[in-house]
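Saturday, quiet lab. Running sequence design on the structure tokens for the scaffold JK sent over.
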């Protein structure tokens, strides 16, 4: 496991340090190789899981596997100086791999996303969006009906997210901090769908600059708001509970969630009115560094095993109450 983790982590570090070019492509290629080995191990764990747990885990694994070809295309684009390839790969990775993986995991992790029927048609809408976005990045212009179709599909996906969340909140409310964090991420996902619908509508109307701006807004709402917020809540909860901590969402984690929301708001403001991206990058770095430090508390910790009753001083074992 150590070589795969090292290749995955060091590959991304190398890409960050080297930037676009052949060295960056080599770093991303190393990350792809490490990720492929990690996914192979994950598939082996899924096959050994209980039968009731396999369907959602299989779906998550399949979706994550789709991200490896996208990363390979991005590495090829970096090495050959083809930014269009990188753009296509990033859109495919975000909307065609990470988003459906989160949506599949939400069927077991998020309380308002457990119904089979809505989950299936929402996955279909996500697949349509991913295909249209990659096609739009590859072609100079899409045929006339496709942007309108994309707008309707994005609107249906965002409205479906919002309706499921609103219906659950009206019936159950927001009983604790953990559910509030998940709800905030869910509303960000619904807003991403609405922003993407506006982007497609602007493209259909021939407003290229507005379409580009709304698509960037949808991307940030999805990546920072929905995916980032859901990961912050779920990974923190799993890490804490696996270490024997009953309350996962404490004050520091709420502060980190606030920093993440502030990062998203700052990025949207810069996108709308302009300005430097350095403050946004500083907020994002502070959020990720703080979350890493928060997670270090649970690294390597396991719940304490149950303690056996002390043996009597005379050495005799008391008789069993139910022989």
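Result came back. Writing it out in full:
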């Amino acid at each position: 496991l150590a070589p795969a983790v090292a290749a995955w982590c060091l590959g991304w570090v190398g890409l960050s340090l080297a930037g676009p070019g052949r060295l960056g492509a080599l770093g991303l290629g190393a990350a792809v190789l490490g990720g492929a080995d990690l996914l192979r191990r994950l598939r082996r764990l899924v096959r050994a899981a209980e039968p009731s747990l396999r369907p959602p885990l299989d779906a998550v694994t399949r979706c994550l596997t789709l991200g490896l070809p996208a990363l390979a295309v991005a590495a090829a684009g970096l090495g050959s100086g083809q930014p269009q390839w990188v753009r296509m790969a990033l859109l495919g990775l975000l909307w065609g791999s990470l988003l459906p993986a989160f949506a599949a995991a939400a069927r077991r992790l998020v309380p308002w996303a457990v119904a089979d029927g809505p989950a299936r048609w929402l996955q279909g809408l996500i697949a349509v969006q991913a295909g249209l976005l990659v096609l739009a990045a590859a072609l100079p212009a899409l045929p006339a009906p496709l942007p309108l179709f994309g707008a309707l599909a994005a609107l249906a996906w965002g409205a479906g997210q919002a309706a499921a969340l609103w219906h659950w909140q009206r019936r159950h409310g927001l009983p604790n901090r953990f559910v509030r964090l998940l709800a905030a991420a869910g509303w960000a996902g619904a807003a991403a769908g609405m922003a993407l619908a506006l982007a497609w509508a602007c493209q259909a109307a021939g407003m290229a600059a507005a379409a580009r701006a709304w698509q960037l807004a949808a991307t940030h709402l999805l990546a920072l708001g929905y995916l980032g917020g859901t990961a912050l809540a779920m990974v923190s909860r799993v890490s804490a509970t696996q270490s024997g901590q009953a309350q996962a969402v404490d004050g520091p984690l709420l502060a980190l969630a606030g920093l993440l929301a502030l990062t998203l708001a700052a990025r949207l403001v810069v996108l709308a009115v302009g300005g430097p991206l350095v403050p946004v990058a500083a907020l994002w770095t502070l959020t990720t560094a703080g979350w890493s430090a928060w997670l270090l508390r649970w690294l390597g910790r396991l719940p304490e095993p149950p303690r056996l009753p002390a043996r009597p001083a005379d050495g005799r074992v008391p008789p069993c109450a139910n022989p």
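Notes for JK: The chain has a mean pLDDT of 80. The longest helix spans residues 208-242. Ask whether to fix the surface positions before the next round.
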